[in-house]
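Posting this for the archive.
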Amino acid sequence: MRQVLLLRGVNLGSRNRVAMPRLRGALSEVGFADVATYLQSGNVVLTSDADSDRLAARCERLIADTFELDIAVIARTRDELAEVVARNPLGEFAVNPRRYQVSFLAEEPHPDVVHTLAESVLEPERLVAIGRELYAWHPDGIARSRLWARLAGPTLGVKATARNWTTVTKLLALADS
């Protein structure tokens, strides 16, 4: 089954350096098939029969052993990622895919967290929470967004990482190839 791995916070400046060729090699060496990466920001597509939670945990251990880094990994099956794209709850607003973010969470956020996030939304931003994904539209960018600061910080209470809509759709295409 095709699966997508999303690594949090790799290759941002000089922090958490993970060379994608080395990561592909390490994943292939432990038995994953059809390993491919997209960009340098920790996006991996591979074939594995493991369930997503076990796959993410196994990859976190592999990264710790190979790169000596503590990196959170979120996994989604190809079909789960296709559902994320099909939902597209902010598609009518999100005209710039680089400013349309999806935060992928390891588990559903607590309703209080979603309420706090919703209070951070300043027009014209938008936020929609569906299951283990948070869709956020930042038309003015993320640099000064209170919402983005909360989405990117530890206040979610669960492991999470975000990707812009361009990356989300490219990963689905890669999983389909």
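The chain has two domains: 2-79, 82-176. The chain is about 35% helix and 25% strand.
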